[in-house]
C-alpha cells in the first residue's frame, strides 16, 4: 500500500465515478424501506438485507459495524495518529488544536460523546477546524480534506479489506441529510464508501 499512490489514483477515479444513491422511502406507519427491503420499523434500524448493508455501529451484522466511523481503526492522518475516523469528525468541532489532538487518543464511541465537551458550536458559524486552521464546512477545501482522510484510513489493512470485501451497496439510513447540521451527511458517507469500494475493486 502507498498513501501517495492511492491518493493520486483515487482523486482521478472519483472524478469519473457515477454514484446513484439508493432511495429510502417511508410508508404510512413510518417504516423505512430501501429497494423494497425494510430498513427501519418500530424496533429500530436493520443492518443487513440481501440488497444492501446499512452502516451503524450498534446494528446487528458484521459489515454494519466494521464500516462504521466509530469502529477503532488506527491510522495516521497529516502527522496525527487517530484511533478511528470518528475521532476526526468530532475533533474538528474543537478550535484548540491541543485539545483536538487529545481527543484523537479516545475511541470512536468516546469521541462521539466528547463532542458535548466543546464550548464551540460549529453549526452557528459553519466553520470547522483542522489543527487550528479554520475551514468552511461547505467548501472544496473541506471536501479535499475528507478525501485525504479516507485515503489515509484505508492504509489500515483491516479497514481497507472491510470496504473492499463488502458484498452489497452501502447505505447509512440513520445519517443526517442537512450539511448544516452534520459534518458528514448521509449522501457524503454513502458516496465515499461506495466510491472507495469500487476503487479498491477496480
What would your notes on this structure say?
- The chain has helices at residues 3-15, 62-66, 85-91, 97-103, 108-114, 122-125, 140-153, 157-165, 186-200, and strands spanning 24-26, 32-34, 37-41, 44-45, 53-54, 75-77, 80-82, 127-130, 133-136, 170-171.
- With 202 residues, the protein is an alpha+beta fold.
- The chain has a single domain, classed as Tetracycline Repressor, domain 2.
- Strands 1-2-3-4 form a 4-stranded antiparallel beta sheet, with no helix packed on it. A two-stranded parallel sheet has the order 5-10.
- Helix 1 crosses helix 7.
- The radius of gyration is 17 Å and the shape is globular.
- The mean pLDDT is 97.
Topology:
Blueprint lengths: L2 H13 L8 E3 L5 E3 L2 E5 L2 E2 L7 E2 L7 H5 L8 E3 L2 E3 L2 H7 L5 H7 L4 H7 L7 H4 L1 E4 L2 E4 L3 H14 L3 H9 L4 E2 L14 H15 L2
Parallel strand pairs: 5-10
Antiparallel strand pairs: 1-2, 2-3, 3-4, 6-7, 8-9
Helix pairs in contact: 1-7, 3-5, 8-9
Short description, anyone?
By secondary structure, this protein is of the alpha+beta class. Helix content is 40%, strand content 15%. It has one domain (3-200): Tetracycline Repressor, domain 2.
Amino acid at each position: 500500500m502507498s498513501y501517495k499512490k492511492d491518493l493520486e489514483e483515487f482523486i482521478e477515479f472519483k472524478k469519473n465515478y457515477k454514484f446513484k444513491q439508493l432511495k429510502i422511502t417511508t410508508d404510512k406507519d413510518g417504516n423505512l424501506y430501501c429497494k423494497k427491503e425494510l430498513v427501519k420499523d418500530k424496533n429500530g434500524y436493520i443492518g443487513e438485507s440481501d440488497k444492501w448493508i446499512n452502516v451503524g455501529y450498534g446494528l446487528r451484522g458484521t459489515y454494519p459495524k466494521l464500516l462504521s466511523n466509530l469502529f477503532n481503526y488506527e491510522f495516521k492522518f497529516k502527522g496525527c495518529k487517530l484511533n478511528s475516523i470518528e475521532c476526526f469528525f468530532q475533533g474538528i468541532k474543537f478550535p484548540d488544536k491541543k485539545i483536538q489532538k487529545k481527543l484523537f487518543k479516545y475511541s470512536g464511541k468516546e469521541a462521539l460523546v466528547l463532542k458535548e465537551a466543546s464550548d464551540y458550536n460549529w453549526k452557528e458559524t459553519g466553520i470547522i477546524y483542522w489543527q487550528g486552521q479554520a475551514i468552511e464546512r461547505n467548501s472544496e477545501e473541506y471536501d479535499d480534506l475528507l478525501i485525504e482522510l479516507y485515503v489515509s484510513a484505508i492504509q489500515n489493512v483491516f479497514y481497507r479489506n472491510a470496504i473492499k470485501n463488502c458484498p452489497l451497496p452501502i447505505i447509512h439510513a440513520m445519517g443526517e441529510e442537512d450539511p448544516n447540521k452534520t459534518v458528514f451527511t448521509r449522501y457524503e458517507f454513502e458516496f465515499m464508501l461506495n466510491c472507495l469500494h469500487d476503487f479498491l475493486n477496480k
